[in-house]
Design brief:
The chain has 12 helices and 12 strands. With 390 residues, it is an alpha+beta fold. The chain has 2 domains: 2-52 and 247-337 and 349-388, no CATH class; 66-234, no CATH class. Helix 8 (241-285) packs parallel to helix 11 (353-379).
Length: 390
């Protein structure tokens, strides 16, 4: 039966040049479905790689209870001092970085519009708390000065962020004095300045948005979390930095699935019906040939499987085409996005191998469903009636 199936599949494929136009329409339809699927979820994968994979699973984030994002959190100086006291009581060697976060507008030269990026106010401990972060040009900002350093990704994507240029913030000109890198993390999309200078310029007092804590050990981290959670009067919530970004990405992924899957389903149904129509035509055009094959001993199952194999192979070809197009178009492309609230992130697109494999497998399923009914039709053709066809 296997040998007969391979023979019938080969005969079907050799007849493709006679119906190349319709076959290519099927291939193109499946390629479009796979390209949309892989392209959409590559954006999510790139975003996950930037935020989740680039975050530190040892760092703890302390925000105001009930705040969903850093720029929505407002912790008073008294609350920050209480958190610092509790954290140091649990771990005297903890590294603590009070930080403020707000949005500023920068220009995208490629779109000639303005978008929001994160402006972070930090103290001396902030850079040391983040592993792999260092200056690549210029120098650090000085305490109390209206000076900024910018992430390399932001500098590459947005206008006016070169060393020596200035940004007009809070009715004052802030001079850019350095560029920093933190490869593969969202920090590179930010602009940093002195915490005290930014608090003074924006009239926000001495409060902060978040406190980042780097405990000396996992046991110390557990002790800090337990101590902070045990005091509800602090009014703060503590979580791992990685968990914070993971929750944001999962929310994006759920939204993407909610909107993308119905569209993909409609496209897939269209591709399935196109395949059904094409293969019904192919079976009708080769009815006599099928009758001859049946009369010389080919079974109904090999005939049906031969048609099904053609459908799956054409769909797999479409899947590979769709994956190849998306990989060439997106992989490594530098872009920016504001999926995470209003904050714009510069990122390098990645097309994961696992996602490409999923796309090809979905293409095979489309081919299987599209070829099922024509395959049954071919296998059930009465031999006598098939031989009468002219």
């Amino acid at each position: 039966m296997i040998r007969q199936t391979l023979v019938m599949a080969g005969l079907n494929l050799r007849s493709l040049p006679q119906r190349l136009g319709t076959a290519m329409i099927d291939v193109f339809g499946v390629a479009c479905v796979v390209a949309v699927f892989v392209g959409l979820f590559s954006v999510v994968a790139s975003y996950r790689s930037l935020l989740v994979n680039g975050s530190d699973d040892a760092t703890l984030m302390v925000m105001k209870a009930g705040a969903d994002a850093e720029n929505e959190s407002q912790i008073t100086q008294a609350e920050a001092d209480a958190v610092a006291t509790a954290a140091r009581a649990a771990d005297p060697r903890v590294i603590l970085s009070p930080e403020s976060s707000r949005l500023i507008s920068v220009k995208r030269p490629q779109n000639h519009d303005f978008v929001s990026v994160a402006l972070r106010g930090v103290g001396p401990a902030a850079m040391g708390l983040r592993s792999g972060m260092h200056l690549t040009a210029g120098r650090r900002f000085r305490s109390g000065r209206y000076e900024l350093i910018v992430g390399r990704a932001s500098q590459q994507q947005f206008a006016g962020l070169q060393v020596g240029s200035s940004l007009h913030l809070a009715d004052a000109d802030w001079r850019i004095v350095g560029v920093f890198t933190s490869t593969g993390t969202g920090v590179e999309s930010e602009v940093w300045g002195d915490l005290g200078a930014l608090q003074s310029a924006y009239g926000s007092g001495s409060g902060v948005s978040t406190l980042r804590l780097l405990p000396s050990s996992a046991a110390a981290a557990a002790g800090i979390r337990a101590r902070l959670k045990a005091d509800p009067q602090l009014g703060v919530a503590v979580q791992r930095e990685q968990d914070y970004f993971q929750g944001s990405v999962e929310g994006l992924f759920s939204t993407m699935r909610f909107f993308a899957y119905p569209v993909l389903l409609v496209m897939a149904i269209g591709a399935i019906f196109a395949g059904v129509n094409t293969l019904y035509g192919a079976v009708a055009a080769r009815t006599r040939e099928i009758g001859v094959a049946r009369s010389i001993g080919f079974g109904a199952v090999p005939v049906a499987l031969g048609v099904l194999a053609e459908s799956v192979l054409l769909s797999l070809l479409g899947g590979i085409l769709g994956v190849a197009v998306i990989r060439v178009a997106l992989n490594g492309m530098q872009t920016n996005t504001n999926f995470f609230g209003d904050t714009q992130f510069a990122l390098s697109m990645v097309v994961p191998t696992a996602l490409m494999l999923q796309g090809v497998l979905w293409a095979g399923l489309i081919g299987l469903l599209g070829g099922l009914l024509p395959a049954v039709r071919a296998g059930r053709l009465p031999i006598v009636e098939a031989l009468r066809e002219t």
